[in-house]
Amino acid sequence: MDEKQKHLLAIDDEPVILDAIKKIGAAEGWRVDTAADATSGLHLVQKHVFDLCLCDIKLPDLDGFGFLDELRRMNVDLAVIMTTGYATVENAVQSLELGAIDYLPKPFTVDEVLSALYRGFRYVELISKLRSAKPGLDSMIVPCPIQYRRLGYGSWCFIENDGSVKIGVSDLFLKIVDPIRALRLQPVESEITQGFSCAEVEADDELVHPVMAPISGQIISVNQKLEQDPSLTEKDPYFEGWLYTIIPKNLNYELKYLTACNQAYGS
Questions:
Q1: CATH topology assigned to domain 7-132
Q2: pLDDT confidence of 1, banded at 50, 70, 90?
């Protein structure tokens, strides 16, 4: 983003979390407004222009889904990162389908909050550039192939003819966390679960960004080429740079939370 001060809205009914977000934001030079419920948050949205919102799904009045609905009704274009307990990650996955850009499972560390917020601010910047249709943007982000499906903007999957599923990371996600220092993968036979981290990308700024699994299942192969050349994920994210092949567990059920890759980011 440009040099103007970033403006964050944090909505949570736990004062300790709001205090922590305010301290983190102050340390990063961001302006942070807070609200203890969705109604108060919506009043702030009417008075200020925010770059990003961090919102808990479980709130005392409207829940996070209701907050997203109200933003749509008000025709407010605000990027929202949801927070949720680990036991309700499925709700967070559902929130991506309903308009949230990302989610952050609780409890979270300072580093996890920072990585999520930096991704969020960078997402807003890149989507703004894409919408502006400036010359050269066609080559800035490699589009996800139309036969693929994606979880939010971060990970994708492709169903093979034999029923196995190939999984990888989107080019937009890679551009957001760029430059990349390391890629951490799980071994063969590991079980991965939709909405939980299945790999980690470490950026040059030392922030670690989780890659959320788009589909649950058991890993049956890992892309061995990435061991010799991790940058292959950036060079060719949808073909040679795939991460895993898995045997899915709940494919038909979980597909409903994924977005077809012919749908534009931020639409």
A1: Rossmann fold (3.40.50)
A2: very low
